Amino acid sequence: MRVAFSGKLKEGGQPLDSSESTPLVLGERWVIVGIDDALLSMNVGEKKTIELEPDKAFGPRDASMIRLVPEAEFKKHGTKPYPGMMINADNLHGRVLTVSSGRVKVDFNHPLSGKTVIYDLSINEKIEKPEDKVKALLEYYSRVHVKDLKVTIHNKDVEVIVPPMINSVMKKKAADDIMKYLGMENVKFSEVYLRRHEEEKKE
Description:
Elements: E1 2-9, E2 15-23, H1 33-40, E3 47-52, E4 66-70, H2 71-76, E5 86-89, E6 92-100, E7 103-107, E8 117-125, H3 130-142, E9 150-154, E10 157-162, H4 168-182, E11 186-191, H5 196-202
Parallel strand pairs: 10-11
Antiparallel strand pairs: 1-2, 1-8, 3-8, 4-7, 5-6, 6-7, 9-10
Helix pairs in contact: 3-4
């Protein structure tokens, strides 16, 4: 499906993430559970506004996710912690709350945990053709516009001509999902480099 959404906090109305057109595989939790569940019950062209409590949005606040980290750990990496600093540790994103007596209090809760949110949703299109599904999956991971992609499918083999320099990690994620959701066996990416005047004509 290709969907549009825009969100805001219920309290204060602060805008959150939004998109006018993003491809999603529904039911696979590519978005927060409340949005996913709502989209599953909607039809193409339908619009809906939903209000989500924390357990259906970004989760409740968890006191165990607020941790004390020795300041020495930051010094090992050549950084000096300060309140409000964003950090990554053990695959978790956190925000420094306080720095005191050689100890750093870090909140590893999602910034929107404990918040009630409101989202406007609509389903713009149901993606039907296998070639279009391949393009949509690559678009989701790489943010490359589908007009810049050429897809050829033969039996269970897929070849995608992509613009140069798409991150290899993104291509791997897209390839895994192309095989998972479309039942393909092989996915090949080919990069095409154009002469400068050809690139300008394309623009």
